[in-house]
Amino acid sequence: DAGVIQSPRHEVTEMGQEVTLRCKPISGHDYLFWYRQTMMRGLELLIYFNNNVPIDDSGMPEDRFSAKMPNASFSTLKIQPSEPRDSAVYFCASGDLQETQYFGPGTRLLVL
Amino acid sequence: SQQGEEDPQALSIQEGENATMNCSYKTSINNLQWYRQNSGRGLVHLILIRSNEREKHSGRLRVTLDTSKKSSSLLITASRAADTASYFCATDSMNYGGSQGNLIFGKGTKLSVKP
Predict the structure, then answer these.
(1) Is A27 helix (H, G, I), strand (E, B) or coil?
(2) Which one of A10, A54, B43, B100 is at 20 to 30 Å from A96 when CA atoms are compared?
């Protein structure tokens, strides 16, 4: 298996633009997680899905953030409109709820 | 505040020395995990220890868990320059911070191993 795949790996955009991050989890994993990592706040859970259904989105910072999982092999995290404070590394992970999670390489987002 | 907090925040050692990192947490757990993150990369799972276990080994890694003190330690023996990375503990968190049941990560210990 290729592991968790994320795209793009880097994204530079201007404030106000829409940003869409993509994730392909490892086949067979029931859970998919979106995290955000910054120096100030560390690694924060944004939202997670179980069998394509959002279970907990309490970590999503604002209504500007939305996530979908239309099928078991694809998820998106969208920020609209983006702001400079959204600059961070966004990770997707798949696995089990309280067991091992497998992380993708991350998307490094810079909002100017 | 974080469920798990690593100590120290940064650690610098010479190749061949042992590295010890600690993690403290606040609530009861089912298991505790350690992850490693190389610069610019995603986190990689190292080891999982369950609440009924006290010690676990994997290669040069040794993890201990003291549930009475709500703490864990990660020992890397005979460190190598390639061990340079950040190390995170993660705990499951029943009824903590609204994210019930998911892993909560600490802020990590940045380990630097000098050749």
Answers:
(1) coil
(2) A10
